[in-house]
């Protein structure tokens, strides 16, 4: 069940981007910002529910890093005078994330920790794929493209950290 929820969010991100026309910079900015906010919310939930030091350390890293990237994104769109544009992909991501948070709120202890960590692996794989294959190639603004490329490097590290975390949890 837990994998299915993470997979549903991942599928929605991939399908939403793949089926639509190539996203414009305003849509790309909104998708990236939304994806960051989703991971911030998941990290905050983990900080509130987990008692596992490794999970708490990882969740703190997710909140810190995704907040920093989102802050840079907000500064960039302000500098460029671009208004991020809501779109079906952002909306699907938000809807799926809300369902995931609700489901995970009913878990505790090791069950929560494992579900959170497994979802982080699936989510980062999907977001990294979307960045590499859709968002970065379609970004027209060089500064936006550069920020997305920097984010991708960081988020690949997050994925590896999440994979390691999963391997340590029972």
The ordered H/E elements are HHHHHH
Number of domains: 1
Biggest sheet features = none
Write out the CATH superfamily name. Ferritin, core subunit, four-helix bundle
Proportion of strand residues: under 5%
- Count, helices: 6
Mean pLDDT over the full residue set: 89
> Which word captures the global form?
elongated
CATH architecture, by name, is Up-down Bundle
Kindly report how far apart the N and C termini lie.
17 Å
Q: What's the alpha carbon Rg, rounded to whole Å?
A: 15 Å
CATH fold call: Ferritin
Contiguous uncertain segments of 5+ residues = 1-12, 14-19
What structural class do you assign from the helix and strand content?
Answer: mainly alpha
What is the CATH class name?
Mainly Alpha
Quick one: how many beta strands?
A: 0
Q: What is the helical fraction, as a range of percent?
A: over 70%
């Amino acid at each position: 069940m837990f994998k299915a929820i993470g997979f549903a969010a991942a599928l929605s991100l991939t399908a939403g981007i793949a089926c639509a026309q190539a996203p414009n910079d305003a849509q790309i900015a909104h998708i990236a910002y939304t994806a960051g906010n989703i991971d911030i919310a998941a990290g905050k939930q983990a900080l509130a529910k987990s008692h596992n030091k490794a999970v708490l350390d990882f969740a703190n890293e997710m909140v810190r890093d995704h907040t920093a990237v989102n802050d840079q994104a907000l500064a960039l769109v302000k500098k460029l005078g671009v208004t991020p544009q809501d779109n079906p992909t952002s909306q699907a991501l938000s809807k799926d994330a809300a369902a995931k948070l609700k489901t995970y709120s009913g878990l505790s202890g090791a069950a929560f920790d494992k579900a959170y960590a497994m979802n982080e692996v699936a989510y980062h794989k999907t977001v990294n794929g979307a960045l590499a294959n859709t968002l970065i190639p379609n970004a027209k603004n060089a500064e936006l493209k550069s920020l997305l490329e920097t984010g991708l490097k960081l988020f690949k590290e997050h994925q590896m950290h999440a994979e390691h975390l999963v391997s340590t949890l029972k």
